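User: Please predict the structure of the protein below. I'd like the answer in structure-token form so I can feed it into my own downstream comparison script.

Assistant: Understood. Taking the following sequence of 132 residues as input:
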Amino acid sequence: MDRPDWNAAAGMLADVKRAWAGIDDVQQRVLSVTGVAWSDDRLIKAVVGPRGQLVELEIDPRVYRNPNSTALAASIVATARRAAEDAAKQTAALIDETLPGDLKLDQIGGLNFAKLIRSHDADLPKEDEEHG
């Protein structure tokens, strides 16, 4: 029977202790994340918070020169979505740099954390779709 590698276990424990010691700093950094995106025509700017929720929206008055509420709504949604993707990438990078490589929470059970944090709400399966 092979003996446990106590040095490896001690190293992993030290990694966990280091990650845990900096958790307050990481939390503050994650809570300060903002995602920013501009529409393709640069007439709309969306800013979202760390959870992807819209906190600021700028609409250039030039959008009213050719009023089209459907196009405006679609552009706002697309821009806010890109801002949320930006915030999610920043958050994932903060978490990835904090956790030791062998402790990444990519998947636990049936939940893929990496996919969840990088996905937009509109892309997540609905409960009735999952249980079909």
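That's the full token string. Strands lie at 35-38, 44-48, 54-59, 107-108, 111-112.
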